[in-house]
Specification:
- It is built from 17 helices and 2 strands.
- It is mainly α.
- The protein folds into 2 domains: 200 residues, Growth Hormone, Chain: A (Up-down Bundle); 196 residues, Growth Hormone, Chain: A (Up-down Bundle).
- The protein has a two-stranded antiparallel sheet.
- The two termini are 21 Å apart.
- Keywords: Membrane, Transmembrane, Transmembrane helix.
- This is MFS transporter.
Length: 408
Amino acid sequence: MSQLVIQGAADAPPALRFERSNVVRLAIAQALAGANSTVIYATGAVIGDMLAPSKALATLPISIFVVGMAACTLPAGAVAQRYGRRATFMIGTGCGVLAGLIGSLAVLQASFWLFCAAAFLGGTYAAVVLSFRFAAADCAAPERRPRALSAVMAGGVFAGVIGPQLVTYTMDLWQPYLFAATYLAQAAIAALSFLVLAGIRLPMPTDTEADRGRPLSVIVRQPRFIGAVVCGVVSYLLMNFLMTAAPLAMKFCNLSQQSANLGLQWHVIAMYGPSFWTGRLITRFGASRVVATGLLFTAASSVVGLLGIEVAHFWTTLILLGVGWNFGFVGASAMVLECHRPEEKARVQSLNDFIVFGTMTVGSFLSGGLLSAYGWDAVLWLSFLPLVFAVAALVVASSRRRRSEVAT
């Protein structure tokens, strides 16, 4: 086992002294950080439409936000590998503060490209926030890691409430600059998250540990890792793919914007609500079975969507999709924890997130075009193809693991 130095208390293991405090702080920071993503998703296209030199570029800020998530995962992992996760959190949350300040300035100056820069910084912040789940596992005893991971993800339930309310109550405060106050409020909440994370106590790698570990080329060939990455990719890709298309599909079906907004709100709650129990389910039944259940929920969401185009069909689709994402993504994250040694965790986890978020950009760019060209049913039918691929990867990973356990 590698030797760890604990920030603030080198003589005590984090699982014994700081586990509860760290998990609580990470869950609070996760809830506060939800304002960042919600503000950009809710306002990015509207502001883009107001500021872009061409209407065709209206949704570019949201796409740049997703690109920022993918582009910053590997650098964040490198910083964590050398200086520890706490340093990464401080940098990422600082980017969140800058995203809000620059976003507000962009609105005041009517600068589209400055707003795109703010969106990229917001993506950087979002990428760091999603690493909170792995940090929670780092500071927990092995048998409690799935629960710690899911407890932090449960903070997203509160994010689903904080973010929309922030937009609703601040969008018109600074007339005539629509959303200028919203981005200032987002910066303030990111600053509050910075203060919460400042008191965190996480394991720090020693100087020798930072240079140790197997080459990534060896780690990524593990069937278990391949299965975890594929399932994480498919879970996140389909969630983003269908969630992005659903509101526009509801508009095409002459359903109200209010119905679409409410459906998305329940979708976010369904994404994070199960996290109160996902960790216990993983501990009891294993990560692979939880992932399989998540893929089944995602498939069910597409089936319901194909049954009709009433409000109830869309809402049920979005709720099932959220639950499927939770089981699939949290379960896949728990599988990743089984594929690396302690000294390898930062590199392996950041690589996993880079692949997941990088692939997610495909869904972000494609969903709207496919919906406009081929319709909602075609989008739903297409979702079954990656699901089949994920199930196959999960079966192979699980069967290889059973064989290795039998052999030993």
